[in-house]
Amino acid sequence: MNIAEQRSAPDELIAFSKAQLHDVLINVKGIDFIMACSTDGFELCSEYRKNNYNSGKLAAVSSSILAMVSAFLGEIQLTGCQSITLDAENGKAVLTAVPAHKHPMVIVTLAAKDILLGQLLYSLKEASNNIVKHDQADSLNN
Questions:
Q1: Angle at the Cα of 56 (from 52 to 60), degrees rounded to 5?
Q2: Least packed by Cβ within 10 Å: which of 58, 64, 104, 130?
Q3: What confidence tens digit (pLDDT) does each residue in 46-102 have?
Q4: Neighbours of 106 (CB within 10 A)
Q5: Residue 81 phi, psi (nearest 5)
Q6: Do the strands 83-88 and 105-111 form a parallel or antiparallel pair, or are they unpaired?
Q7: Is the pLDDT of residue 5 over 60?
Q8: Nearest-CA neighbor of 98 among 25, 21, 4, 10?
Q9: How buried is residue 31: exposed, middle or buried, by Cβ count under 10 Å (0-12/13-18/19+)?
């Protein structure tokens, strides 16, 4: 895989991913910001109710955190990191892996403290699975 493939994805996959993020934003009350980024830290698309975030820095830091946690899980012999939830005094952040074969991504979600976490995690898992399936179908067609 060359560097250009890692940092981006086909426009059609990005549009599909953006639609998936939009569905999560609309269906889960309490989300402020949701973004898909490449695993090497570049923003692909985002949806938001509040946008007081530096999405470039957020993408870079999020991909690094997911990589560090994946390394940690390897050390303790757990496999397939699916999500990381950070619970702070004033909100929650969830990093969700999108293990698409050709264009892996990270979904970054910033939400209110009182969000229904189970509903959010379920919706993010569905979105991730849909993006993976879409990437696989696109790979088969090309």
A1: 120
A2: 64
A3: 999 987 889 999 999 998 998 888 889 889 988 888 899 999 999 999 999 999 989
A4: 26
A5: -55, 120
A6: unpaired
A7: no
A8: 21
A9: buried
pLDDT tens digits along 7-59: 578 899 999 999 999 999 999 999 999 999 999 999 999 999 987 889 999 99
| DSSP for the chain, written as a single string | --HHHHH---HHHHHHHHHHHHHHHHHSTTEEEEEEEETTS-EEEEEES---S-HHHHHHHHHHHHHHHHHHHHHTT-----EEEEEETTEEEEEEEE--SSS-EEEEEEE-TT--HHHHHHHHHHHHHHHHHHHHHHHHH-
28 in Cβ contact with 116 (< 8 Å) = yes
Tokens of 114: 């009182």
Side chain identity at residue 48, one-letter code:
Y
- Single-letter amino acid code for the residue at 65: I
Write out the two tokens for 48. 């938001």
Place of tokens 């870079």: 60
